[in-house]
Amino acid sequence: MLKSIAHEDEVNAFLWESRHLSGTEWLAECVRYLKMTLDIVGLENLPDKNDGRLYTFVSNHPLGGQDGVALGSIIGQHYDGRFRYLVNDLLLNLPGLKPVSIGINKTGKQSRDFPRMVEAGFQSNNHILMFPAGLNSRKIDGQIHDLPWKKTFISKSVEYRRDVVPIHFGGQNSERFYRIARFSDRYVRKVNIAMLFLVDEMYKNVGKTFRVAIGKPIPWQTFDHSKTPMEWAKFVEDRVYEL
């Protein structure tokens, strides 16, 4: 059953067929493989790749798979592959994704390395792409919405003087997924059962059109002491959902 839910044979076949690709090229191939149509609004808001500055790109996380692939493809192509994801370290098992990823295990034995790995990402000469909620969206009061955003992207963007570019990705998973997620979050907190179904959800979303809205960069100086970092994170989260 688990092998079927994880689409093991299909995923392995794709990984083998795309084994010669990595980074942005591999992400673009994923978009093609999943037959995604991306309706991009606000592409002109992406800062010029030659302006000599580094940015933090933050997005909601409605799907848990395709949204990350699509945004990596967009950002990677615009900035010639010069970006890094902060991702769950499980994803480092995907060879094509590994070169553009900083793997974070926030709950296991690597949790003590979390601050160091985030620091390394922001110190690098790469743009950073983050999903500040940490997990993909849940169904809350009948609406598909992220869990509260973490403050890390605020504090690090200020420290390293990176403007923040808000992005909204439109999409949702199946009702079954949200039922499983609700049960898992409520009763089985130590294990994210819902994560097991994300590949199945990805295949259910094959061939769909997704709206991607890119907002204007928010200057890092905006995040002053008038609000706490958590409050500023909520401010940016709200800005994303306004897109």
Description:
The chain is α/β, with parallel strands linked by helices and 243 residues long. It has a single domain, classed as Glycerol-3-phosphate (1)-acyltransferase (3-Layer(aba) Sandwich), CATH 3.40.1130. The chain is built from 9 helices and 9 strands. It has helices at 2-5, 8-17, 23-33, 66-78, 114-123, 152-159, 175-187, 198-204, 229-242, and strands at 37-41, 55-59, 83-88, 101-104, 127-130, 138-140, 143-145, 163-169, 209-214. The strands form 2 sheets. The protein has a 7-stranded mixed beta sheet, with helices on both faces. It is globular. The termini are far apart. The model has no long low-confidence stretch (mean pLDDT 91).
Helix-strand blueprint:
Layout: H1 2-5, H2 8-17, H3 23-33, E1 37-41, E2 55-59, H4 66-78, E3 83-88, E4 101-104, H5 114-123, E5 127-130, E6 138-140, E7 143-145, H6 152-159, E8 163-169, H7 175-187, H8 198-204, E9 209-214, H9 229-242
Parallel strand pairs: 1-9, 2-5, 2-8, 3-4, 3-5
Antiparallel strand pairs: 6-7, 8-9
